Amino acid sequence: MLDALTVAVAVTALALAAWCGHAAYKDQPTKDWHFIGMAVVTVLALAQLVVGIVQLARGERPEQGMAVFIAYLIGSFAAVPAAGVLSLSERTRWGSVTVAAGALVLAVLEVRLYDIWGN
Amino acid sequence: MSDTDRRPDQSPATPGTKPSFELGTGPGRVLVWFYGVFTVAAASRSVVEVIRGFDRAPLAYSLSAVAAVVYGFITYSLVRGGEKARRAALVCCAAELLGVLVVGAWTLAEPSAFPDSTVWSDFGMGYLFIPVILPVTGMIWLRRAKRA
C-alpha cells in the first residue's frame, strides 16, 4: 500500500476529529466548513480505495488476506460520509460528536489497513 | 394509553412528561453511529470468515454472526424509537454485555476453543474494548431516555 496516503488519511482524520470535537465542546453543530473538511478526508480515502484496488489488480497481495483488505478499504471510504449524513439531521453538538467519532474510527481503520497490507 | 394521533416513532407511554421521545437523537445519535459501525464490522467479519472456511472455527464464526444480529437489532431499535423499541434495545444491550463478558472470559480460560477470534474475544480488546463500553453506555442512555 501507499504508506504516504495511509498516513495522510489517518492524520487528516485525526485533525477532523479534533476539529469536530472542538465544535462539540463549544456546543455547536457541524457547519459548512466541517463538511468541506469531511469532503477532503473522504477524497483522500477514495484515492486510497482506488490505489488499493489498482495494487490488487497488479497482482500484489495483502499479507492478511484479500477479503479483509477490501472490507477495510470500503469501510475506510464510507466511515466519514456516513457520520456526516448522521450529523446532517442532528443539528446539535451531538452531530459534531458523531463526526468526531467517525473520524476516530477512520484513523483506527487506517492503522488496521497498514497491518493487513504488511510490508 | 392511546396513540391515536402520534407518529409511530413517538411513544405513547409518557403522557405526563414530554409527549414523545426519540432514541436516536442527541447523545443517542452517537450510539446509532457506533452500533452501526459494529453491525457492519461484525457482519463483514462473519462474511469474511465464512468465505475463508466455516469449518476452521465454527464456534467463533457463529458468535461473530450472532453479534452482528444483536448489533443490527439495537441499531434498528435506536432509529425506530418509542417505548417498545426502547425495551427491546435494553434487553439486547444486556444480552450483548453478557455475551462480551462470557465470551471474553471463555477465550481467556480456554483459548483452544477459539482457533480464530471474534468481536467479543478477550473482552473486545481487538476493538479497543468498545464492545464492553458500548452496552453499558447504551443501557445508561436507554434508561435516561425514558425519563427525558
List keywords for this structure.
heterodimer; A: 119 residues; mainly alpha; 0% strand; elongated; B: 148 residues; 4 helices; 64% helix
What does this structure look like?
The complex is a heterodimer of chains A (119) and B (148). Chain A is an all-alpha fold. Chain A has one domain. Helices cover 82% and strands 0% of the residues of chain A. In chain A, helix 1 runs antiparallel to helix 2 (32-57), helix 1 (3-25) packs antiparallel against helix 4 and helix 2 runs antiparallel to helix 3. Chain A is elongated and about 50 Å long. Helix content of chain B is 64%, strand content 0%. Chain B is elongated, with a radius of gyration of 17 Å. Chain B has 148 residues and is mainly α. In chain B, helix 1 (27-53) packs antiparallel against helix 2 (58-80) and helix 1 (27-53) packs antiparallel against helix 4 (130-147). Chain B has one domain.
The radius of gyration over CA of chain B amounts to: 17 Å
β-strand percent of chain B reads: under 5%
- Number of continuous helical runs of chain B: 4
Helix- and strand-based class of chain B?
A: mainly alpha
Low-pLDDT sequence parts of chain B: 1-19
Oligomer: heterodimer
Q: Secondary-structure element sequence of chain B? A: HHHH
Q: How are helices and strands ordered from N to C of chain A?
A: HHHH
Main beta sheet of chain B: none
What is the topology?
The complex is a heterodimer of chains A (119) and B (148).
Chain A: H1 3-25, H2 32-57, H3 66-88, H4 93-117
Helix pairs in contact in A: 1-2, 1-4, 2-3, 3-4
Chain B: H1 27-53, H2 58-80, H3 83-109, H4 130-147
